[in-house]
Structures are given as C-alpha cells and as structure tokens.
Design brief:
about 240 residues; alpha/beta; 2-enoyl-CoA Hydratase, Chain A, domain 1; 3-stranded parallel sheet; globular
Length: about 240
C-alpha cells in the first residue's frame, strides 16, 4: 500500500509504504536545514511515533543532494541569536532522531556535509547512493568549531580509526569511503538507493516496537541525556559554532 500524506512544509513530503513512512526532503536546491525544514522533519517524526501502524521511517534526499548542512542564509546572516537557535534546533532534531522510538533509515542520495552528515549519524541504518558526492564534517575547513553535542554523536558513531581525520582535519569522502569512516552502512546504485532503504526499513519495522524502543533507551539513554545538557547549555549561552 502506498499513499501520500500532506505536510505543512513545501520542502518536505510524506509517502506511506505499508508500515514505512518515507520522508522526502526537497527544497529544490541543496536541502539545507532551515528553521522550516527542521520543523517539518520533526513534524514527520511525531506522525511516525504516534502511529502504531508505522514501524520505521526513511529520510530521503533529492537527487544528488541529501543535505548540505545548516541554511547559509542564517549562518552568514549576521544575526547571532538566529544562528545559535538554528544550530541548537538542529541538535535537538539529531538527538531526537537518534533516540526515536521508531527505527530511522537514511537514503543518502548524494552530498551530505556538516549538519547533513550529522543527520546521517542520527539514523540507525544509512544507505548511500554510489554517485559522485562529498560526505563529511567539513566545519573546521570553513572556520567553524563543532558544538559539543555534535562531537558527542560523532565520537559515538564514527570509526575510531577515522575520527581524528574526519573531525579535526575536516576530511570528506565519497560514498564508498563513508562506509569505512562510519557515516554510511552500505552503498547502492543511485537509482536503487530509495528502494534499498525502504527494504531495510521494512526489516526494521518487523522488529518488536516495544523491544526496540526499550533497547534504544537502555543503549543510548546516557548519551542522549548528555546531548540534552549540551544543547541546553548552548541555548542558554547563545553559543555560535565559529572559530
């Protein structure tokens, strides 16, 4: 069964495929995380978590671009309060995805940089398209320091062997390399990436929802609590991730 669901954002659309909710991200450009994009993804997650018939979620980017990071019009706009709020809201979303009561699968269609790479780290299973692309945490290369909450999840999910190069020296990689680093779990052809991601989501949807949610809480609870404190501190201080 397939059906299309309405969303409040023009940049995010929902498609129901049996027990899987596919969240299509498409702003017509680089899929930047603007305030409205963050809110729409959060709204989609709420829909999934409140519907007992939805067993998993797929985050799907537009062709060639999964997510280019935070909206540069905000990050370079000179409004420090807006910049801080956007980054903290992004942290809340990453934390919420990683602690979700339903499994999350990424269909990484191409470029995933900065906050886009952090989105990948928040997903249970990450399927990448075998297309020319750049994936990684390039903050240092553009003069930014990763906030503590971002470092926390990077340390948690990235390969220890690649951690220093991936974070401190901002090394980016292609899709195949991203598997070794820890941003992706597998690579598929560009034409098949969504279907493979949906197949993986169906496998996860077959798990016991209660057992999954309880295990995530036990496995990730301490880290999620630490991220919550770090994000709250950034909000209180109005922290902006600049060098």
């Amino acid at each position: 069964m397939r059906s299309v669901m309405k969303m409040t954002s023009e940049h995010v659309s929902l498609e129901r495929r049996d027990s899987v909710l596919v969240v299509h991200l498409d702003d017509g450009k680089a899929n930047a995380l603007s305030p409205s994009m963050l809110a729409a993804i959060g709204e989609a997650l709420t829909i999934a978590e409140e519907d007992d018939d939805i067993g998993a979620v797929v985050l799907h980017g537009r062709e060639g671009k999964f997510c280019a990071g935070f909206d540069l019009s905000v990050m370079r706009g000179g409004d420090l309060a807006a910049m801080s709020a956007l980054v903290s809201d992004g942290g809340d979303l990453v934390r919420r995805l990683y602690g979700s009561s339903v499994p999350i699968v990424a269909a990484c269609t191409g470029h995933a940089l900065a906050a886009g790479a952090l989105l990948l780290l928040s997903c249970d299973v990450r399927v990448g398209a075998d297309v020319p692309c750049k994936i990684g945490l390039n903050e240092v290369a553009i003069g930014m320091v990763l906030p503590e909450w971002a470092l926390t999840i990077a340390i948690e999910r990235l390969s220890r062997r690649h951690l220093q190069l991936a974070v401190a020296t901002a090394r980016v990689t292609d899709a195949s390399g991203a598997v070794d680093v820890g941003f992706l779990d597998e690579v598929s052809s560009g034409d098949d990436v969504l279907e493979v991601a949906v197949a993986r989501a169906n496998e996860l949807a077959a798990l016991s929802g209660r057992a999954y949610a309880g295990t995530v809480n036990a496995l990730r609870g301490d880290l999620l609590a630490r991220m919550a404190v770090q994000i709250a501190s950034d909000r209180r201080l109005g922290a902006v991730p600049t060098a």
